[in-house]
Design brief:
Elements (H helix, E strand, L loop, with lengths): L2 H21 L25 H4 L4 H5 L7 H4 L7 E5 L5 H10 L4 E6 L2 H14 L4 E5 L12 E7 L8 H11 E14 L5 H4 L2 H5 L6 E2 H11 L2 E10 L2 H8 L6 H8 L3 E9 L17
Parallel strand pairs: 1-2, 1-4, 2-3, 4-5, 5-6
Antiparallel strand pairs: 5-8, 7-8
Helix pairs in contact: 1-6, 7-10, 11-12
Length: about 290
């Protein structure tokens, strides 16, 4: 599946998701209709009431993730955090509160509609130690060794060049910095019909890496202390939810994906001895 095609479809679907926050509609790994939480098996019930009370309702409704990296990442006061594929800004705003006024939270997104929604949520929240950047996660517009923690919520699986994403995450992290993302991963063989569906790619399924492959790619980027912790395993009825409406034979496919897709929290560390990035970034090598 061509990288350009995937990127264009992702931008279109996530741009539409941002607009639907106010006007209604929903999709797998997408935003819920106005005024209600998503019931999708991937995106639902990820944030508790204490977290949702801290941010604008629109940020919660626009949540496209498969986990809650801000709850699982061990953030400290004064740290700088980068959220890859920040969407409506929920994880950036929550991170900004965790790192406090002496810290900083960046959000990176390539979709204009999501950036507009995120900046509106920033304004409504009154949180000032936040900055949303326009760009692609394969080419992060930040200097080498500039952030303490990289987080992401079910976005890396959407990239057609995951190696580039992980190399860039490694590059921008300071030595000793942490990689702490939620993502969908797979176990066992996945049917070709799933892998070839561009809509299921956008729905966080078709582009998911096997656990072992994710570990290998992190290792190849230079990370250490790699850990993949399952947080949700999707069963047959969950599969019916995320396969439905995609032009596939749900009754035939659902039993064959039972237990093969799972949300996971993925941790890794950039070695403290690292002096630079694994590759040269777009803003640092002129």
């Amino acid at each position: 599946m061509a990288e350009t095609n995937i990127k264009n479809v992702v931008k279109e679907k996530y741009g539409s998701a941002a607009l639907r926050v106010a006007t209604g509609g929903s999709s797998c790994c997408g935003a819920a209709p106005a005024g209600q939480r998503s019931l999708d098996p991937i995106t639902s019930n990820l944030y508790d009431s204490s977290q949702s009370a801290q941010i604008p309702a629109e940020a919660m409704l626009a949540s496209l993730g498969c986990g809650n990296p801000t709850a699982l990442a061990n953030l400290h006061l004064g740290e700088t955090v980068l959220d890859l594929g920040s969407g409506g800004g929920i994880d950036v705003l929550l991170s900004a509160k965790r790192v406090g006024p002496t810290g900083k939270a960046y959000g990176l997104d390539m979709t204009d509609e999501m950036l507009a929604l995120a900046n509106d949520n920033k304004r409504k929240s009154g949180i000032t130690n936040v900055e949303f950047l326009r760009g692609e996660i394969e080419r992060i517009p930040l200097p080498d060794n500039s952030v303490d923690v990289v987080i992401s919520n079910c976005v890396i699986n959407l990239s057609a060049d995951k190696d580039a994403v992980l190399r860039e995450a490694f590059r921008v992290l300071k030595p000793g910095g942490r990689f702490a993302v939620s993502d969908v991963v797979t176990r066992g063989e996945i049917l070709p019909e799933i892998r070839k569906s561009v809509l299921l790619w956008v729905g966080c399924i078709a582009g998911a890496l096997a656990e072992s492959e994710y570990r290998a790619k992190l290792d190849g980027a230079g990370f250490e202390q790699i850990d993949v912790e399952p947080t949700r395993i999707y069963r047959v009825e969950d599969a019916r939810e995320f396969l439905s409406g995609q032009g596939l034979d749900v009754d035939a496919l659902a039993p064959q994906v039972d237990g093969k897709f799972l949300s996971a929290f993925i941790r890794a560390v950039k070695p403290a001895r690292a002096n630079g990035g694994a590759c040269c970034g777009p803003t640092c090598c002129n």
